[in-house]
Write a structure and sequence with these properties.
The chain has about 260 residues and is of the alpha+beta class. It is built from six helices and 13 strands. A hairpin with a 2-residue loop joins strand 4 and strand 5.
Length: about 260
């Protein structure tokens, strides 16, 4: 319609877990260790996550955002891995999308930091995980006087990397097109301490488990004007792969006499 640059649409993969969710978490710690690992058991839903992406951090008065945008699956050989990394770094579409989302992160961080302190610390560096590799950047700035961790969250949620740009219109399109409400997916998991520090992760690479054992994994991809549907679908499946791959091992673990 000409009123959006990018929208991050997600799809959900449902399954009957047939395992203790904590065993899924234990397996993920081994097969897909990530900067943010979390397990939250709530009466209505259990959240199991291994997120690679910080939402926002506030540490010793410094606001830090590390947007991730751009994904390729890991190669089966070192040579294939290098080829996929080069393709990811050099692909014009991936570069354009990543720079756009870094600019969006700069705009968000700029709302709560002192003028002139905002900077791009890293631009399009590669991070490797068990099933995928990502392009990552870092934006930071000095927290402005009178601002606190709640202000930082308000200025940055939701992340552009799970919504799109412009954010408000992207969220409207997501609400219209996605078949189910996202729930915790794309939100934040983290902590706020008594010193005013904040450390949060975006709730991606996250499994939600209902009390009856029904589980879901949601993954998204950034859609732009020249997106290829097959490529975007594959990106979603690659992102969900590590969580889904942990399920068979968790089932075997749950079936051992120790769990009986």
């Amino acid at each position: 319609a000409g009123d959006i640059f990018q929208v991050v649409l997600s799809q959900r993969f449902d399954l009957d877990l047939q395992a203790d969710p904590f065993d899924v978490y234990r397996v993920l710690r081994q097969v897909n260790p990530s900067p943010y690992m979390y397990f939250i058991r709530h009466p209505e839903v259990t959240v199991v996550g291994s997120s690679p992406e910080p939402m926002v951090q506030l540490l010793a008065g410094r606001v830090v955002s590390r947007p991730i945008a751009g994904t390729r699956f890991r190669g089966r050989t070192d040579e294939q891995d290098r080829r996929m990394a080069a393709e990811l770094r050099e692909h014009p579409k991936e570069q354009a999308e990543h720079v756009m989302l870094v600019d969006l992160a700069r705009n968000d961080v700029g709302r709560v930091v002192d003028f002139g302190t905002e900077q791009v610390d890293e631009l399009m560096t590669l991070e490797y995980y068990s099933h995928v590799m990502h392009l990552t950047s870092q934006v930071s700035g000095t927290l402005a006087a009178g601002k606190g961790p709640v202000d930082v969250l308000r200025a940055t949620m939701p992340a552009g990397t799970v919504s799109g740009a412009p954010k408000v219109r992207a969220m409207e399109i997501i609400d219209d097109l996605e078949a189910t409400k996202r729930g915790p997916y794309g939100g934040v998991v983290g902590y706020l301490d008594f010193s005013g520090n904040l450390d949060t992760a975006i709730a991606i690479r996250t499994m939600l488990v209902k009390p009856d054992g029904r589980a879901s994994v949601q993954a998204g991809a950034g859609i732009v004007a020249d997106s290829d549907p097959g490529d975007e679908d594959l990106e979603c499946r690659n992102k969900a792969a590590a969580l889904l791959a942990a399920v068979p091992a968790a089932r075997r673990m749950s079936a051992t006499p120790l769990h009986a």
